[in-house]
Amino acid sequence: MADTETTPALPEHYFRHEFGRLVSVLSRRFGVHRVELCEDAVQTALLRAVQSWPQRGLPDDRSAWLYRVALNEVLGALRRAKHTDTSADDIEELAAEAGTEEAVFLENEVKDDQLRMLFVSANPGIPRESQIVFALKILCGFSIEEIALRFFQGREAIYKRLQRARAALRECIAEPQSADVGQLASRMPAVLEILYLLFTEGYSSAQPDRLIRHELCEEAIRLGRLLEEHPVGSAAPEVAALLALMYLDTARFESRVDGTGGLLLLEQQDRSLWDRELIQIGVAYLHRAARGDNFTRYHAEAAIAAEHCLAPTYQETRWAEIARLYQMLDRVSPSPINTLNRAIAIAEWQGPEAGLALLEALKPPSWLLGYYLWDATLGELYRRRGDPERAMVHLTRALDAAPTDAEKALLRRRLEACSTCSDTTLDVQRQLHD
Amino acid sequence: MSTTKSSKFLCLFRFAAAGWPAKPSSPQEMQAQYAAWKAWMTKFEKELIPGDGLTPAGAVVRGGNVTDGPYIEAKEVVASYCLVQASSLEQAAEIIKACPVGMDPNASIEIRQLGGYGG
Questions:
Q1: What is the rounded CA–CA span in Å between residue A147 and residue B30?
Q2: Is B3 contained in some domain?
Q3: Which of A176, A238, B17, B31 lies 20 to 30 angstroms, CA to CA, from A54?
Q4: Touching check for A150 and chain B: CB below 8 Å?
């Protein structure tokens, strides 16, 4: 028996990440149309590790140990299926090749394999929502239950999405083996969108458990870095821009809630809680992103996040610059939400009147009218302009439409502030009249 | 020789046949299981003599006839075993109670003192 006392503990998320690495390596070897088989094999290998390592100690090369077990599982399953699965004809050939591969189980190749898998999940034949679920399952090693929990959805819905991705990949027997990441580079926009949505889901979803959400942000950053370290990713400035955005947002992750889990506005956040180290990394990525002539939404959003991160106080924020950046964002990624955000910046810069003028000139689509932030913003700007009656109408509507308890609580506080402010206004008026 | 007389105990880990092999855990759950096992084994490093897990492959010989499977019609299957070195049955039970499987309502662990007849 190995000396368990000197056996180092496994790194955090070791099994999840090892799952992603091994499934990627095996799927390259045996084809993405066999990804489910590879998943089962890796699952078994991890289970063996759980049963054996605590007793016998960790093997010298854990990854090679897991790879060997998983590889034998895949080969065993393919040999058993040989009678029914004609696509397994090449099995002995594959077995011979895979046997020699153990020697070249190199870190760089493993990274390439994971990246290839990320581009495989961005297959245009798979709907976006299925791509994300597939990436979380295969590359991040989350189970269906764990994804459902993170996405605040039912297990069935997640399972269906996953199966849609797998079904699409079963069709493309040739693609993943022949294509390397360079050949799949045209999928970069889809890959970035997957990472962006993954991050956003973690950063601002309705899931109340912050730890769970933080994990999604971590995974998006981990995969983003994997991409940036590869020549295909480092050649694309928008990858650095997305990383900048993710780091600059993550730096403020914890400061957005108070001690009791209530939401805090940017204005109320304790800036000393912002993670300076993450801000530095984010700013460095933003500098790296500032090249070429492809200005993306990630550039604009990262630049806005940087403005907030670098402002010493809320009052000293460069609101004119932020208003300009929202305009630029709207040019590359048009949405009335950008106008809404620009109105907030302009209100800080030039006063509530100017912000309201922008919103009143906007013809909001009906979905925006039902969006709680539309009413919340209007309510706040009317309140500041000294129009508490109108402010209360909008804040009440926002309160009805707010998706989470934390947001409802925030709006309720504002509504209360508004009604007291409304009383004082009346008092002032009464005094004047008296 | 140690002054406390210590004995060896065979511990048989049994699971409800309906639930074994158990539904696969997620990698995240497996990491938690690994940590739990490692903590237990480190705590009782001196007392535990690791055994092994048992695979579903097996046969039963009865009256000269060999039949498939170790657990046909059985309600429970023996899934793994280990040995414990302890001064008493009570102490062995304390050690096994602290084991991660000891908390599982679908599992039971039979502890039997070795006779030492082999000398």
A1: 16
A2: no
A3: B17
A4: no
